[in-house]
What does this fold into?
Amino acid sequence: MTTISKKRKFVADGVFFAEINEFFAHQLAEDGYSGVEVRVTPARTEIIVRATHTQEVLGEKGRRIRELTSLIQKRFKFGENTVELYAERVQNRGLCAVAQCESLRYKLLAGLAVRRACYGVLRFIMESGAKGCEVVVSGKLRAARAKSMKFTDGFMIHSGQPANDFIDSAVRHVLLRQGVLGIKVKIMLGTDPTGKAGPIMTLPDAVTIIEPKPEEPVYEPRSEEIGKPQVAPVEPSQNLEGYQQQEDEVQIQQAQY
It folds into this structure.
């Protein structure tokens, strides 16, 4: 058994990932391919393909995914039953830059106007819950001279480590009659505690405003007579009638004596 250094192993893993990613990008472009994940276990190698249309990736009765498995097995000289392919549906394709880039690419190939296609993608991304979005189309758009058009919406960061954590970007090329167009889509994800629609962490400059505690009502000052029951106040007219009744009772008692 030959040993391999860590440096060569990392390089070999990176080359393997880049090659299968390029292979799937060409083969599954029309099926909404958005990425691949490789899991190596002692028994076998698992390759998870993420796409928006998983049924087309699987094919009729799993025929297409078996063909892809056979091609990868022959290309990388895997042993029998040592590599498995799985198809996973993208949870929210509106927050996937690769899926939206491919969608815009096919809209332009169908002959849709650049401005209309870009605004449609922009609106769909923002309605899916993105914090911000940027779409750039470069090339010969109308005239013979090349130019670029940029469409933005929402909030977008461009530098620092948060740009690596919160920004999902993708680049694609469209071959049209007048030349090649370049498409770049950047999506700013929001914070998601579950980790499904964005990173769990928050932006370093995010300000959290804590709601103040409810204030207790302030009552009028009073003596602390805990044991004595509170007597209801008597109106002045009722008070005078009580005094008159007491005087009459005293006079009757004196007359009896």
